[in-house]
Amino acid sequence: TASMFATGNPDEYDATFNSGIYIAGYGSYTYTVTATDTSPIPNVGSASSFFDVSDGIDPTIIGAGFSVSPVIYGNTVDLSVEASDDVDAVLASVYITFDVDPTNPIYLTDTSVPGYYTGPVDTLTDLAGGNVGLYDYSITATDAAGNFVTSRGSILGAELDVVDGTPPTVIDASVVSTV
What we know:
Elements: E1 7-9, E2 12-14, H1 19-22, E3 27-36, E4 44-53, E5 60-66, E6 71-72, E7 76-84, E8 91-98, E9 106-107, E10 116-122, E11 133-135, E12 137-143, E13 148-152, E14 160-163
Parallel strand pairs: 6-14
Antiparallel strand pairs: 1-2, 3-4, 5-7, 7-10, 8-9, 8-12, 11-14, 12-13
């Protein structure tokens, strides 16, 4: 409950809610305005209404990285993403989409430490038949209010470097001599 005094013209008054003092957080708030005149027998009138305070601030992607770099083609590597939502600390989802197959996002769900999300990337299946090379990807973090932010692995300095770990095969080791 908060009280305030408003001044203005006899039929019109302006009042301001100070969000740092009267508003406890995001949500819907109801308020009542009561007016009393200065007659010898005071007349009192009141009306109630409401207003909503919503989260309009995007979350932040702080960084990303792989558990091993480079990774050998065919192996699985963990990708970690650090993201935060300064408003209410609730991220609804964090997902990764590799450029090779943007229709196949990888959802990172390990939330044992809030803000740190890890998940496996299988270089054989998640890269949709890609091969060795440097892969970029997008990271999208969405908060509980639906605000989202997108960043790129290349911007964060964390592309996926996939290398060939298979040694070459010797087909013919015979010695050819010329006389």
